[in-house]
Sequence to fold (735 residues):
Amino acid sequence: MMSARCKKLLELAMRQKDSEDLTVKQRMRERTPLAQKDILRSLPGPSGTLVAQQDILQSLPGPSGNRAYSSDRTSLGEDYSSDDDAQDCNWFPAGTHDEHVSSSLSSKTSTPRSIGSLTVPAVPALVSQTQDDVRKKRKRGVGMMQRKLRKERTEKIKRGEEYINQAGKKILGKSVGELKECRLKCKTKFTNAQLQRVFADYRAMETRDMQRLHLSNHILLTPPIRVKQVENKKKREVSVEYFIENEGNLVKVCQNCFLNVYGENRGFVNGIIDKKKKSATGIIGRDERGRHEPKIKHSSEAIDYVRNHISNFPAYESHYSRRHTTKKYLETGLNLQKMYNLYLDQHTMDNITTKIVSISTYSNIFKTFNLKFKKPHNDTCHTCDTFVAKIKITIDDTEKTRLHDEHVSHQDKANFHYECKSFDKQRAKASGNTIVVAVCDLQQCLATPYLNTSVAFYKRKLWTFNFTVRNCNTGKTTCFMWHEAIAQRGADEIASCLKMFIMSLPEETEHVIIYSDTCPGQTRNNTLPVVYNYILTQKVGLKTIDHKFLVPGHTHLECDADHASIERAKKKYNGRISIPNDWYMLVRMVSSKFTVIELSQDDIFAFSSILKQSLIKKTKDQNNAPFLWRNIFWIRVEKEHPCFFSFKYSLRVEDEFKICDMKRKARASRSNQPIMDVRKAYNQPLLISKEKHKDILSLLQYIDPVYHDFYNNVIKSDNDVVDTSHISDYNSDSE
Fold:
């Protein structure tokens, strides 16, 4: 009898709603034996109740399928089952038992209930703080999809269509209701077609505010004609008259007719009347719901502080694609998390009172800037990305097929150029040194000094340049290095480096083939055939120079691997890089196959100036057909034809070369080989901008004092010099 009573009490306790999903009985089966003991210990009864509790525990399945563990031997001071206690690995002494159980149970308890003369005590909630309970839940009604659904719901309400409310209940659409007999005889004043037209015009209004204004204009508030005295009831303030427009005339109707014709409820119209009462002019304003400024909105001072912080980071234009994009790129090594950490440090240092914004807010403000982080080395092809995007959104099968064919053709062309390079390399190795194949590219700018301090991210630095040429015959790489106080990195500088490389080749070399990307400011321009013509006049055994360009976006060259080796060495380098000479030393240490040539101003020649002397820049070939440099993929200069260059729009051997004569007409009859006087490009150190020089000097405190003289005396500034260091190699060479 006692056991049945306890079971009944337990069932009543388990019926308490402790959660939305599981009953107490289900959770007891999931809990540990200690949690089950706590429940049973809270049940009232005589001392013999413990036996009944043990019976209940035995009826419940244990964690391993055995009968439940015994109760706490210390709870009543008696040991009823010492053998079972010996098997209870979860048993704790009385002093520590409550602490252990409280760590695994929720603090929630159920409300005590009275059943007859019996009181069921409060039962602790058997919900442990598991990982699922601690996990942050998504707020209801928040997110892009929810905002979209609310907007669609608002539109349907405005049009009077059927919709699903936020609680998931289906709300029927609005229509003209049936007009009943009334004192004003509204039913006889309109035809059904007239009512439908009024309803349609009302529901076709653009916004809900326009509908409110329309109803307000058809409601007239007048002083009450007579006031009936009713005890304990507020006196009527105004009398309300309703009108419906019919063929240009306002027809007075009753309230029920007004509501039925427009398909609105009484609460909506009463809200308009209340606003009309409070308005001095009788014109109601727009609905202000959702238009108030959030209380947690960041102040304008906090937003301005973040914007100023982002603006302090130096940004650089793309050297390759600045004609096609206005985006600027941040320095290597920066990312959004680093910038946010620097923002937190700066906020603490400044000790300002503005509230710190979250990283999500910081990210949203950053997106308003036209900035991007430096792209990785393996950039994707812009043309390929465009084709993929267009194919994905195109519905027409014919158009999709055409785009796919063009994409495949573009990829085939890129692969063909790679195959031509491989073929030329094999042919060169088989010829000994008679044919030499080389690849060249300018590495991205190396910041000097290279510092890890957070302050350095906000400062402009001196650029060190590295033009890399790899001899594919020998596998050796020549690195031509200089800094921006010596020379820039335009066509003359690149031409001077190529001249030094070709002049250093063996005497038996007769044919040189060079591959590069399609950067117009470095190689694919009018200066290139000029320097090759000059080299052929200086090097006796050399007969032909070919320069071939890869397809934009697919310009991976062997020297890119050399640049990657330098980048890896830079990350592992423990020494300091304080001046450009430190970069030269680091590159020498990367590989025994690297040869570093430190350029001076005596090594840079103004080959582009020859186009203003004995040669001339041409835009038409020998057949008077115009050509564009961006379409050329193969240039050939031969010793047999001085002052000429041939070009192709592809790398196919079967295509015919087009010829361009660079001689000036006045001098063409004098000599087939005009004199090429090449002067030096620079006769004094270049000046950098005052702002950059100021930033560099502010970093001297982080540099060894022995190098201060270099920045104080060698590097000069001028107020009139424009900072051109923002043009950087931080993008692909796509055109």
Observations:
- The longest helix spans residues 397-430.
- The mean pLDDT is 79.
- The first strand starts at residue 113 and ends at 115.
